[in-house]
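anyone seen this seq b4? input:
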Amino acid sequence: MPEGPETHALADRLSMLLVDETLGVVRFIDPKLQRRRAVLEGKRVLAVEARGKALLTAVESGWTLYTHSHLFGFWRFVDDRDALPDGAPPRLVLATVRGVAALYAAPSIALWETDALDRHPYLARLGPDVLDPAVDAKSLLAHMRTPRFDKRTLAVLLLDQGFAAGMGNYLRSEVLFQARLSPHRILQDLTAGERRRLANALLDVPRRAYRSKHDEVLPPGKDYLATTRARFGFQVFERAGAPCPRGDGTITESRLAGRRLYWCAGCQH
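predicted toks r here
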């Protein structure tokens, strides 16, 4: 499943294709959505935004297209519809004079009135988005005081979109490693200093992962990442059996909250 950095990078790619252009062609594989395509087709695209792992494409008619790729969804970008590959048809096609974007295999596609988006079941449950420029360590620390998070392990919390939107499996391993925290720790047992380390890592790791996808040129609206270190590489994820980068032991693989997690018991306490 694409995580926050990948979803935000997709939003950038879609923005280049769609924003300020008219949707000349809109096609849904779902017959119910296809009958409603007029709320998008022929309308100018105002914005494409990532929230958590969802993409929101807003048009001037007051409607927004919601898409979520989940585990298997993926986008293809081509110059025209004839260039789309043969085989299973896309679930969604969006075309402007700049080109065509096609979404395959994604189970979650919906049309929502833009003013009603806050009531969308997925969006309404999202916690602070770790790639939102308005989110900082202070706001994450305040969110950590939510009582329902207290007795949960960090391994579980860092996959909960209500705790930190945009987080996912590789980010979970890398955030915990940077924060030097065991995945087995309980949130309410963390010291103030440990919570600050966690909050800082929740911002730094995803933003470095996103920043590394754009080399030296940042898309419009992402100037807040200009000072973020661009270099990003896995320190522990999928490195089971390798020496800890800090020299404190060996990276091990565990299955926690149903997903693979990589960590070093020597330096993560």
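The chain has seven helices and ten strands. The chain has a mean pLDDT of 94. kinda curious what u guys think
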